[in-house]
Amino acid sequence: MEKKKNLSDYDPSQVPDGKPYRIGIAVAEWNPEITEAMLRGAYDTLVEHGVEEHNIKVVHVPGSFELTGAAAMMLHSRYDGRQLDGVICIGCVIQGETRHFDFICEAVANGLTQLGIQERRPVIFSVLTTNTMEQARERAGGRHGNKGVEGAVAALKMCHINAELG
Question: What's the confidence (pLDDT) of residue 97?
Answer without folding.
Answer: 84
